[in-house]
């Protein structure tokens, strides 16, 4: 008995799913419906004539298709369609990270209640089997730490900047290559990665986080000079999504961080994605590959369909609501740009000392003018909020040419035993 | 309803499986039996008193345990026990690479015929979820290429040699650390990695290979000087297990190879394992982590048990028998050690030209005596057999101080589109 599949949304990923199904003909998976608005202009010659093209979701719902593949994206109406399909006992496969991050727990419950399954391997790091790897291969560990490069656009921008390019130029390239939207905020400000971190935290750390509770920081404040100073610390800069259980607390954050060059996270280039999972028993496991794009994302969708066709249901690992804090205790990098005059370092040191923060090192490259002089202070492990309080004390100093930039430094850790 | 689990073999991995089951108490998994020879001396305080300890496999078979975890290793009697359990309708989880490499296809068939499941996530790269990742997350791709660092002992030896240590010293360290056996042949000569490559080829390339058909080469012929010359080519040396479909043919080989330093395979250190999977649609995916050791391997076993407890059966992806050839068309590195005299390079060039093999470059480091002078020739892509024929022609040359060493050079490839 085959599963009968209806694809909702025949864009880049949807047509790639159809293409792979037509090419590989996986046993037990039959494509029966393709739904799209103005479907007439979507019709493709290479799709078998047995497939029904439709503009009506109700037609799909009433049909004998027993699995929907939701690739429409966004919360509305995609969420409503997934919900109605599950309530009708149809299983659903989706790549919709926003929907799963916000409503995954509820949709999982609806699926269970109606004997249906909900798969979303394509929602995080498209072509990299992180979600099935966690659910099937690491369920036997107690994962305590997640570190990921979950947004290919940011990784493209930052890895190009590492090679000397300027933010604005690279963003323009990313937009013309189709990696970034006209309004890039979703990517560069961390919202896209944050939704993915919520999904991974649920599966790996068994913690249900509220999306808006996780602090995000933009990568737009990173300048070329930061890569130079990071290099002096044997580091580079990447957008890192990080979650960790420590004691009973759950720490999570998304934003640019200094990453040691000998960490796998520093090796990612271009639009590559990478996920590092730290387990109590198995130590660190790293997954990497193409996180986005039509074909890699379609591979994740088709893999979920094959798993469904083999009669495998969801691996429902129990998760529970967790409060999030962004208070990692980490070393920090602080880049100042100042109008130089004597006494500045003393004022900075005083502000930091007031919060019990110790300076670790101070770097100043030659070759800059007195009016706009960048230099860097690194400090010993402290929380970001303590650092913010310290920096607030000097925020109105007349020698600041621009507000200071503070970044967490991701330190290599011994795997927890 | 819980699955009732009998562990066969209470050694490092077996006791670690029991430990994780007692610590994490995964829902639906109940440990009921532990089998070991002379079981009295194995009995552990921390195992719940409800568990039955036994020296009799027949007692396990007759019991209500419905899943056996085979961690005895070797073909006999482990294979017979797995077979009898499956025939009795019990599912089996095993970390036995030798058994699955040689008899996996048959055991899968027996499992299917008796409504049982056979899982072996622990058989390859222990703590890294490569097998579940392939079965659940990449089933929707057409994998055309596998490259792996599948033997932690070889990787420990070669990554230490890269830092300047001598083979014999590192082997001794590996033995005292418990990474290598007193007789290290299984590891250093490639047999261990070959069994794992057979298992991965079946799952990823859907090809059933006969273990003994895959050519293996030892790492024992690698000397410190080879790392120096490899470095001049921006490469290092790793034991690589490689399989690839090209046209209708299947190429596979295991042995030391030159690996470019910008390849993820060059980044692996110590006993780390790594698997790179190249797919037609999804491009390259890399998995890495701890491939062996009690805890990481136990994580794979417990994960398989949790998958079973969730009612997920095997993902039976169809595979078919395939003939193996080791005839990759690759650049080669050839290291000669000669008693120097004029004309040697001419003789080598002549022998290579006779097989239509073009020299690419020649390297000779200063500082060696005329009696035992090492130098390296690299050649443009050729098959290993053509190179062997060329080298055979000069094998009795009186200027050879030792037989030449030839290594394939793993070149970065564009993902197949």
Description:
Two copies of one chain form a homodimer. Chain A is an alpha/beta fold and 417 residues long. Chain A folds into three domains: 3-119, Rossmann fold; 130-290, Dihydrodipicolinate Reductase, domain 2 (2-Layer Sandwich), CATH 3.30.360.10; 330-409, 2-Layer Sandwich (Alpha-Beta Plaits), CATH 3.30.70.260. Helix content of chain A is 34%, strand content 27%. Chain A has 14 helices and 18 strands. Chain A has helices spanning 12-24, 57-62, 78-87, 97-113, 130-137, 152-162, 167-176, 185-188, 191-205, 224-232, 264-267, 294-309, 344-353, 384-393; strands at 3-8, 29-35, 52-54, 67-70, 91-94, 118-119, 143-149, 207-208, 235-246, 249-260, 272-279, 283-290, 320-321, 324-325, 330-338, 359-363, 373-382, 400-409. In chain A, the strands form three sheets. In chain A, strands 7, 9, 10, 11, 12, 14, 15, 16, 17 and 18 form a ten-stranded mixed sheet that branches. In chain A, strands 3-2-1-4-5-6 form a six-stranded parallel sheet, sandwiched between helices. In chain A, helix 4 packs parallel to helix 9 (191-205), helix 6 crosses helix 7 and helix 13 packs across helix 14. The longest helix of chain A has 17 residues, at 97-113. Chain A is elongated, with a radius of gyration of 24 Å. The two termini of chain A are 46 Å apart. At the A-B interface, helix 1, helix 5, strand 12 and helix 12 of A face helix 1, helix 5, strand 12 and helix 12 of B.
């Amino acid at each position: 008995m085959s599963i009968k599949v209806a694809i909702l949304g025949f864009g880049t990923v949807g047509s790639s799913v159809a293409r792979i199904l037509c090419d590989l003909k996986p046993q037990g998976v039959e494509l029966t419906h393709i739904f799209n608005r103005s479907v007439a202009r979507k019709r493709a010659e290479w799709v078998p004539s047995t497939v029904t093209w439709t503009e009506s979701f109700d037609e799909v719902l009433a049909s004998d298709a027993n699995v929907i593949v939701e690739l429409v994206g966004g919360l509305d109406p995609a969420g409503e369609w997934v919900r109605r399909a599950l309530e009708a006992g149809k299983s659903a496969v989706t790549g919709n990270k926003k929907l799963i991050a916000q409503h995954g727990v509820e949709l999982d419950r609806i699926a269970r209640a109606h004997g249906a399954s909900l798969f979303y391997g394509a929602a995080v790091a498209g072509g990299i089997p992180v979600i099935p790897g966690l659910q099937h291969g690491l369920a036997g560990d107690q994962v305590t730490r997640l570190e990921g490069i979950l947004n290919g656009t940011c990784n493209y921008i930052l890895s190009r900047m590492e090679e000397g390019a300027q933010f604005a130029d690279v963003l323009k390239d990313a937009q013309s290559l189709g990696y970034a939207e006209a309004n890039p905020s979703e990517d560069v400000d961390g919202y896209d990665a944050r939704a993915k971190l919520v999904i991974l935290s649920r599966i790996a750390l068994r913690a249900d986080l509220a999306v808006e509770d996780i602090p995000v920081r933009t990568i737009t404040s990173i300048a070329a000079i930061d890569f130079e100073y990071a290099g002096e610390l044997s580091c580079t800069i990447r957008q890192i999504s990080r979650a960790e259980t420590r004691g009973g607390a759950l720490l999570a954050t998304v934003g640019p961080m200094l990453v040691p060059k000998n960490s796998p996270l520093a090796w990612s280039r271009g639009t590559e994605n990478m996920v590092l999972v730290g387990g109590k028993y198995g130590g660190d496991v790293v997954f990497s590959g193409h996180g986005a794009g039509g074909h890699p994302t379609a591979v994740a969708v088709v893999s979920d369909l094959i798993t469904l066709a083999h009669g495998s249901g969801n691996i429902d690992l129990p998760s529970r609501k967790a409060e999030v804090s962004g208070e990692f205790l980490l070393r920090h990098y602080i880049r100042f740009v100042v109008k130089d005059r004597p006494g500045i370092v003393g004022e900075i040191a005083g502000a930091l000392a007031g919060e019990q923060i110790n300076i670790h090192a101070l770097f100043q490259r030659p070759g800059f003018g007195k009016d706009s002089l960048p230099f860097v202070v690194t400090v010993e492990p402290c929380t970001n909020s303590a650092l913010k309080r310290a920096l607030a004390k000097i925020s109105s100093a007349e020698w600041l040419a621009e507000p200071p930039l503070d970044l967490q430094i991701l330190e290599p850790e011994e795997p927890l035993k």
